[in-house]
Amino acid sequence: ATIDISGLTSFLATLSPDEKDEQLRDWALYGLMSRYGQGAPDDIPIRHRALKGERPGEVSPGRVFVLSPREWWVIVPHEHLRDKPLIGGLVDAQCAAGNALPEKVSLFGYSYNAAAATIAITPAGTIGVNDLYSSAYGYASVLVRTQADFARFAGQVDDLVMAQWRSDGLLLGGRKYARDSRRALSVEEIAALYQAYNVSAGAQGRARYEGFLEEKYAETVRRDAKVRQALARGTTSKAAVMAKLRRRYPPASALKREESIGFSLDPQRDYPALAADVERIARQLPATLATNQPALAVLITSGRRELLAAAERIRSRKDIRPLIALRHRYQRSADPTEQRFGELLRYTEENHSYQAARYDGNIQGTRAAMILFYTDLLAKLWALDYKGMTPKGAIKGLRTMQQISVTKLHWNEMARLSQTRLWFGLRKDGFDVYGDRIVFHPIATRVYAASFDLMAPGKESRPNYQSREFLGWWDSHYEAVAEYEPYYHKLNQIQKWSALFVVLREKKVPLLDFLQGVPVTRSLDFATWSRNNTTLKAAIDIPFLESRKYGRTTECLPLLSSREYRLMGAYYALSGGVSLASRNDILAKLHQHDAEAPARAPSRRGATGAARSGNKMASTSHPPVKSGVQPVRKAVGGAKPSAEGGGTFRAEKGEKTIKLTWNKGPSVAMNDLVATLAARQQADPKAHKGEEVFRGLPDVQSVVRLKAGSAYLVKTAATKDKWIYLSVNPAKAAGYPAQAAADTPEADIFCARLVSAAEAGKLAAGKAVVR
Description:
By secondary structure, this protein is an alpha+beta fold. Helix content is 38%, strand content 21%. The protein has 27 helices and 27 strands.
């Protein structure tokens, strides 16, 4: 089939390169469905910003369509037709989502001809389900009873696909990818996780308990000045402090802490040194500056009382809010001298800030912990473009936070929420449990984020604009990032194994207890590990700090913050880490599908990958699933927006081609209007100020002035019987579904909502028509 998209190329040109690829896949599938009468008339496969809330759009190297219980369609770019593991992974994802497999898969390839504005689709044969779960497609399964069985499985696969616990052992299934981009975990790395989730009560458990007490002792000495003084005077001893800790944290409570497994880089401050430096500024610096910078010296002297009060608050309560309030006040001043003073306070605060590694559970010093450390740290370095190390051209669509323009609409939010916590966690829809089996999507890792105001510690909100744009993109394009840096594939496998281990523990299945006896290195230090590891994509060029200086037993490094953003006059910092599967994550899924206990798969003919490797369970070498059950059909890219909002999308069948057309709906037209107005001001703020911004707009039929410079009614052809109520610089933007602004100080903030013709008539009565 040939799909004509000539009427859609102008819209396609507005998309980023990575979104263009996904849009073409959407249209290829839509055209294929239409060719065989499978397209739904209300589907609108359009990746427009106005529709993203309802349909964010699938991000995947191909598309899967469930034609019937017996047959699925898979469509991929022509260059991927020979990539059998990739095709198998697409089927794995659909299988995990619907708990079903077809009897066969019909494969199609597509190619895009930009010059002709066409998408050519060609059949590429039929694949039996047996073949999809054979070594030819990179699949292997092993019935694990011993450590040797487990090592054999780990050596054959890159990606864990399923696990089934049975009376005769644990059946594991996974897939190997031919290209050298997905790297599997070693048995030792997996064992480190298993041992963290299954703390024994024997000598090993006692050793971990003692290690936990040592951590609490170091924390107590660091935080409690009275304990430090008593130890220095000799009026108490380490043994006495440890005895109190044993009473406070008995073994049972310490073991409960093992439930939380993960890693984070936590922002910390050297409060005594910071307080001393603030006092030095207040008492001594004015005399030093009196000759060269007399205005600054006078300013500091006038603020001495506030500075000393802030220093005392820092020393006695570890509360830096008074200092932050002072810094913000001076930084946002229009006076250059006050701005310099604000910068001095910022530098002082940052000079005594650092990050300390925190390991939850018994993973510190292990190779698994080093993977968590590296992937978490690298995400922050890339987000901030630390020393220009972000691979901007290597990962299609990846932008640093600094490359994401902050429009005037978000300035207040950005100024208030300057701190963001990002972390990797288990994707809740990345796995499912069916009876005695857990199945995984190819990606089971999610990127989470939250921002907070330093003046309101502990209170988090949705991430600020740049954070949610950057991290939201990463979350949906996790696989693309992992294809560039395979350690993110390793992180994804860590999430999968951690989920399996929690499920096995909850089900009281000890089939992997032999992993308790696997020797695990626990003495690694990240600075040394990263420096000597030649498989890392990025070199970590950060000056690590002396941990003992801060009373820490884990790695310490400087606080990572951005350069100063244009116009915002602030620095932004990132913290966070990696959280592995918890009991709460699993309990939500554990009994969700108990009524859907899987039936055995149909009989398989022919040799499978498992059979060739000596596994006698060839008939169940791939996920046993329901047979003949019709899952919900996968929509093209997500939910269906209403025709009124998104417009109408049609496939017109010709003799040799299928032409795709789209007529915009009112909500799309409204969003396009505010975006156009903002773009005009971005290009030339002076020429497009006030009502001049409406001049020459081709799609606008009428503009009615309700209040000069403040409110207008706008009519376009695409809004049909609706009008657009346009508010310029409203006091509150909430309630307007369409919002846009340029990123210049002179820019206006344009907000819009749709109103009926009747309401528009009432509002426009007696008002002037601008055009």
